[in-house]
Amino acid sequence: MGASLLVCSALALAQAGALDLEGHATNPLTASSNKVVVLVFLRRDCPVSARYAPAVQQISKRYADVAQFWLVYPDKTETPQAIRKSVSEYGYQLPVLRDPDHVLVKASRVQITPEVAVFDGSRRLIYDGRIDDWYIDLARARPAPTTHELEEAIRAAAGGSSLARKEVRGVGCYISDLE
Amino acid sequence: MSLGVRSSGLVLLLGCACGLAPLVAPPAAPAPPAKSAKPITFNRDIAPIVFRSCAPCHRPGEAAPFSLLTYSDVKKHARQMAEVTRSRAMPPWLPEPQELKFADELRLSKTEIDLIQKWVEQDEVEGDAADLPAQPKFVEGWSLGQPDLILKAEKPLVLPPQGTDTYWNFILPVPIAETRWVKAVEIRPGDKRYVHHANILVDRTGASRQRETEPGAGFGGMEIRIESQVFDPDSHLLFWKPGTIPSVEPEGMALRLDKGTDLVLNTHLQPSGKPEVIQPSIGLYFTPHPASKFPMLVQLENDLKLDIPPGENNFVVTDNFTLPLDVNLMAIYPHAHYLGKDIQAWATLPDGTSETLIHIPQWNLNWQAVYRYARPALLPKGTTISLRYAYDNSDRNPMNPNHPPLRVQGGNRSTDEMCHLWLQLLPVNFDPSEGDPRMVLQEALARHNVEKNPGDFEAHYNLAAMLEARNNLEGATAQYRAAVELRPQDAAGNNALGAALVAAGHPAQAANYLRAALKARPDYFEAHYNLGFALAQQEDFAGASEQFQRAFELQPHDASVEANLGAALAQMGRYPEAKSHFEHALQLDPNQPIARENLDELRKETNQQ
User: Fold this and answer.
1) pTM for the whole thing?
2) What is the pLDDT of residue A162?
3) How confident is the model at residue B32 (pLDDT cuts 50, 70, 90)?
4) Residue A169 sits in a domain of what CATH number?
5) Residue B543: helix, strand or coil by DSSP?
6) Residue B85: what are its φ and ψ, rounded to 5°?
7) Side-by-side strand order, sheet with B166-173
8) What residues have CB less than 8 Å from B478, skipping those under 6 apart?
9) In sequence order, what are the residues at sequence separation of 6 or more whose Cβ sits closer than 8 angstroms to the Cβ of residue B310?
10) Is B79's CB within 8 Å of A174's CB?
11) Dihedral in degrees, nearest 10, Cα atoms B85, B346, B104, B392
12) How far apart are CA B227 and CA B234, in angstroms?
């Protein structure tokens, strides 16, 4: 399963791929040296995405030595200017991609913003889903999260432990609503 | 003479009845799709629901995070909309349907929810442009037009990008030279996307200002309490939640604002992911007509019974209060914190029938609200109002602030719990010769609280203060005594008992309690003043002048202390000193009656000599 997924992802990315904010095709899986790759899928109009900004920034700093984070905006109607402004307002210091054709969305199997995808050094997708369990549903959030799926996945991927692929769906806004 | 500090016992909150309603006539509910299985379309079936029930908040400048005004807006959130309407997370409306209807009810019908689900299943068809209803029209800016007076928080609060929710109180002084009557209040809480709710407390005492570290800075805290020296009960529920459109108070029910009043805006703010600047303002709309109807906020509660063991998932608290007169129930405001689960209140009428006042089966503090009834509900004398709140302090309650759960008791911090139910009641069909009907209501409530918590100092104290205000000195003295027996060292309790005994003509007994008050708090102005009075009544003028002197040192601008000091000195024959105190009292207050009368007497006697 893992192997065939890797092939799929590689093929898909070779075909189209995501764009950086200058409009250059960029493949985060090949542009991240041999670090773990974390794709964070966001929508500007999703308040849950927005509220996670400080946590995402902090986790990316904590694991900067082992993991390369990318912010991915899958809304094809978003302009680079609007994304740039939002990224700066939320204090992100991470590279940003647009994914108008949902190539990264499909390779990552994510469904919601905010969700993350974690690829290990050999570019195997080992986790996709929520960052943690902060939100219970769209009406309720815990005072603080009690699970930390993203951090666990980064540690597993960086440690090379051969964990079974995992997915835990997030709470937020559907990416499929953008199609 | 000062009769000491009285607590109104009111902890919070209140305001104008507000609700969510579009400013245009709502489109009629959509007809169910015909059996010919015509596809459900946005333009014909979905837009009317969205324009009426979503767009008031989902538009630029309002509380919602994205707009829902066009087909493409809605399509970008279609599955999300299907999910949140199915779970009834949106539109936010916590109460179950009931016979006694609320105004501005936001609940979608089952037919509407089903239509949204089917539309999404059928691939979100846009439909015929001719079917699209007109875009809803909303008033830009102040909803009721330019306010007569706009108050703006002096200093904004910078909300940090992350962390737990913030509860902040902004103090807005009301710059008026005389008493004004307010027919409507519009709360603009700052950036509406980050304010969960806000409510106004009317502070006529200036007490809240004392809590600011610097003027205009505001202060933190989820619950605040303003004590009142006189019987002046709160009357209005002045509340804002997302989507609130202010309304004008019913005829005759204007809110009184006196010179020197502060409005305290108690806000619940949620971090957004980036720093946000929050600077609320309040618009006031005046009327020349003073109030002719006097509603009153009545609180049922049972915080002292809140002691919830960790892990307990169904801790039940109740309270029952029987009305001493006929009232119209205007509005209701239930309040609990994060452990609240199932919240119910009902009325049992004298004929035994019962009526649900509110039932919230899944409490959510984030969507707390004031609920106005569509029509006032008459509750006759003898009706018992009951509350039953259930709390979940287990790990299964995801909102539990403690992980793992801890013992939780009643209190003002957001991690404590509360069991409060505010009712806006308008006394009706009463006999004006029996006095202010609100006092009848307050006395019954205070008696109920003493019965409920016989070991509670404050319950006895508040009942005593109410009886004293109604000139029942014997009853007041007995209740102050009960309070002092519970807290023999309490300065305020001893002072109040002493003051009531002075008023009842027992100065010797009074002096003992006033001395106890001063032992507990040597710089207690009121106790010195009252002791001076008690000693003067016993013709111990030397002792009295000593107490008045001490009181005057504590409050050198108090004209009545100066006048009483002069009177005590005059009684001792020390006329020149007395005269200078009377003269000083009149400098402080040219109308001080004791000083004026005594000075006239002194001058007459001097002239006769």
Assistant:
1) 0.86
2) 60
3) low
4) 3.40.30.10
5) helix
6) -75, -35
7) B219-220, B166-173, B262-269, B195-203, B239-240
8) B464
9) B393, B402, B404, B405, B406, B407
10) yes
11) -40
12) 11
- Say if residue A130's pLDDT is above 70: yes
Residue B101 has pLDDT above 60, yes or no: yes
Give B201's contacts (C-beta < 8 A, 6+ positions apart): B12, B13, B14, B208, B224, B226, B234, B263, B264, B266
Asked whether the beta carbons of A148 and B374 are under 8 A apart, the reply is no
Provide the pLDDT for residue B36.
Answer: 54
pLDDT tens per residue, range B515-560: 999 999 999 999 999 999 999 999 999 999 999 999 999 999 999 9
Domains located in chain B, CATH noted: 24-131 (no CATH), 149-287 (2.60.120.310), 298-440 (2.60.120.230), 487-608 (1.25.40.10)
Is B509 strand, coil or helix?
helix
Find chain B residues with C-beta within 8 A of A55's C-beta.
162
Rounded to the nearest 5°, which phi and psi values hold at B207? Answer: -65, -35
CB pairs under 8 A between A and B: 77
- The pLDDT assigned to B19 comes to 32
* Residue B124 dihedral angles phi and psi, to the nearest 5°: 55, 60
What would the 3-class secondary structure string for B51-80 be? Answer: HHHCCCCCCCCCCCCCCCCCHHHHHCCHHH
Q: Is B149 helix (H, G, I), strand (E, B) or coil?
A: strand
Amino acid at B65: P
Please tell me what DSSP assigns to residue B354: E
CA dist A72 and B259 (Å) reads: 56
β-bridge partners, B58: none
Q: Does A140 contact chain B (CB < 8 Å)?
A: yes
* B21 pLDDT more than 70: no
B404 touches chain A (CB under 8 A): no
- To probe the interface with B, which of A56, A87, A136, A142 has the most B CB atoms within 10 Å? A142
Are the beta carbons of B161 and A177 separated by less than 8 Å?
no
Mean pLDDT of chain B: 90
SS (H, E, C) chain A: CHHHHHHHHHHHHHHCCEEECCCCEECCCCCCCCCEEEEEECCCCCHHHHHCHHHHHHHHHHCCCCEEEEEEECCCCCCHHHHHHHHHHCCCCCCEEECCCCHHHHHHCCCEECEEEEECCCCCEEEEECCCCCEEECCEECCCCCCCHHHHHHHHHHHCCCCCCEEECCCCEECHHHC
Structure confidence at residue B115 (pLDDT): 97
Of B66, B87, B273, the CB nearest to A137: B87
Residue in this structure with the two tokens 């909300």, named with its chain if needed: B159
Structural domain boundaries enclosing A114: 2-178
CB of A153 within 8 Å of any CB in chain B? Answer: no
**In contact, A11 and A107? CB cutoff 8 Å:** no
B190-199, B286-295, B309-318, range with the lowest pLDDT: B190-199
Strands A67-73 and A36-41 turn out to be parallel
| Residue B78 touches partner A, C-beta closer than 8 Å | yes
The pLDDT tens digits for B433-473 are 888 999 999 999 999 999 999 999 999 999 999 999 889 99
